[in-house]
Amino acid sequence: MKLRRRLTDTERKQLGAPSLRLFASIDLEGSTAFKQTLANRQNRTWLSVVLNFVDTFEQSYWQHIGTQALDVAKTTSPKQPRLWKILGDELVFAMEIKRPVDAAIYIDALAAAIKEWNRLVLAQRKNPPALPERPLLVKGAAWLAGFPVNNAVLPIAGNHHDYIGPSMDTGFRLARLASPRRLALAVELAWLLLDLDSSRQIEFAGRTRELKGVAADSGYPQLWIEVAASEYHAKEHQVLKQRRCDLPGADLRDLCASFIRDFGVPPDLPHIPGDKTYTPPPGYQESLRGAHEDLATRYLPLLTPAEIKVDKKTKAVLPDALMATMEAELKDAARPSPPSPGKENV
Predict the structure, then answer these.
(1) In which region does residue 264 sit, left (phi positive, over 0), alpha (psi from -120 to 50) or beta (all else)?
(2) What is the DSSP string of 18-70?
(3) Taken in order 280, 250, 97, 25, is the CA torsion positive or negative?
(4) Which residues make Cβ contacts (< 8 Å) with residue 48, sequence separation at least 6?
(5) With a cut of 50, which residues of the chain have pLDDT below it?
(6) Pairing between strand 317-318 and 19-28?
(7) What is the pTM (predicted TM-score) of this model?
(8) Within a 10 A sphere around the Cβ of 52, how many other Cβ atoms?
(9) Structural domains in the chain plus CATH codes
(10) In the chain, N or C terminus with fewer CB closer than 10 Å?
């Protein structure tokens, strides 16, 4: 992976364009132990399992996005999620949030895709086929990240982008709280979903210190959407739900907001560029200007073919900066020289 150091004006503007993105990490549960048990077999059964996961989950996710957009949100589908990275047997998707409802569509579709996958795995375990394609359950985590303030987009050779920043660090650590039955949510994502619909069922189990380095190790809220892939899982969740005191959605939303304000993880409540409801926090425009100045300093200009000028006599390629310098020198040379001191004009 090579970081590009020269960008066109258009590319620099794209990196500096304000955006809110949703990231989703999907991982195979118990894959390390599974591969270890098959490490000495020449047929590489474990490789077929991983490749099947990589090939089919993305398609399933996209199909569920279309279904959720029509059946739940009664709106058009957002753009197809981009498979940003494959980290071993982990898939990481990146999606831009253009409308508040996009976040709900992506998350509901993700929960449905996980549920569908895990149902098939459990069915195969009950009645195992000769060659099971999906012997492993999947688990997921999702978070939000704003750019270019607080986080940054890196231009990679080959027209790729990488994403870095504190929100990304928190998101990848969030996967530790995920399980096949728990779609783990970052606190800012849970807040946005509950602000959209306070009746949405999001589970909360206090804070945990498992996310090292996040919120100064003071504990991070355990928030998730229950994904029941079997009849027993659904019944068990219902029984346990009746035994505990549920926190109303509006109260849980306010709790998430309090955590963000008190601990600064992330620094502010999420905002959606261009949306009148989820507006930027105070001081955002100043931070945005600072990010743009940093981009202009960090990445040298790269002219497009339309911006490159050619000397008519020598046919040499002359960048705009060189052309401007030469034009200034020619103008200075054409100006009449000032009179020498002590002499009168004739």
Answers:
(1) left
(2) -EEEEEEEEEETTHHHHHHHTTT-TT-HHHHHHHHHHHHHHHHHHHHHHHHHH
(3) positive
(4) 133
(5) 324-326, 328-329, 340-346
(6) unpaired
(7) 0.83
(8) 15
(9) 6-300 (3.30.70.1230)
(10) C
